[in-house]
Amino acid sequence: MAGETGPIISTISLPIAMILAGFFAISAYNGLEIYVYIFRTFRRHRGLYFWSTVCANTGILIQSTSSLLRFFAVAPTGPMSAVIDIGWWMMVTGQSLVLYSRLHLVIGDQRKLRWLLYTIIGVFVLVQVPVGALFIVNNYYGGPDVETPVTAAFVGIEKTQLVILALQEAILSGLYVYEWSSMRKQMEITKGRKVRTLFHELVWLFVVVFALDVSLIIIQFANLFQIQTTYKPVVYSIKLKLEFFVLNNLVYLVSSRGSSQHDIELPIDSMPLDTAADDPWRSRRTPSLGVTGEQYATSAE
């Protein structure tokens, strides 16, 4: 199983090699474009939203580049497997934290937010780290023509990992739809049609994230390791661009004035794109629209 244990340059056809190179080009372009979006949007480089976005996008470029170098035997297999793991962890966990970092705008209950954060950390420690360790061991001690017990274990647990990560991201993106749907009718009174438009964007965010994750799972269960490894950064770069667009629209809508004298407006020091005050890592009283959309819900961690 050359893909799981080392280079594949001598075992794949030219069309497959071109597909892999094409996936690398797409993910690299998207990653560079996202960097431009990030540094044009954030005036102050601080807060969980900023750093999780940078982490996820950096992971996309690391994962795609190191996979290409490893597959085509440009760099040694063992060290590249460790670099691939680092890129994968940054890309996946970073993207989950991007989704998490804006949830406090629609969820006022700090206990819910805390459990979501614990879930993300738990999945990283209990699922992603063991899979990464197996991948490194497999690349140092496995062989392209022999399926060792480590290889079999890695193939099985990696499929489980993708399913768990897909469920995690579906829950995080689905919470935006659920929470916003419960407040949008009252929000429309003060903020107009933009509330309905944002709701549709959140729905599409959930649908696209779920569909892309399902496509990854299908490729994984089809045992197309070399395809799914280079396809992953493409999927995550598309999701990150979409999340960045939709979540920024959420920030601007929540922070903007509407058409009513009773409109809701967050204090200027809680503007997420510009200050460190909006940081879910730190204990604080969190401005939130809660579940009613009529007033702030504040609670201390």
From TrEMBL:
- The entry's keywords: Membrane, Transmembrane, Transmembrane helix
TM region(s), chain numbering: 12-36, 48-66, 86-103, 115-141, 161-181, 202-222
Domain named DUF7703 is located at 12-252
In its keyword annotation, does this UniProt entry include Membrane? Answer: yes
> Region (Disordered) spans which residues?
277-301
Q: State the protein's name.
A: DUF7703 domain-containing protein
Q: Which organism is it from?
A: Xylaria grammica
Its lineage reads:
Eukaryota, Fungi, Dikarya, Ascomycota, Pezizomycotina
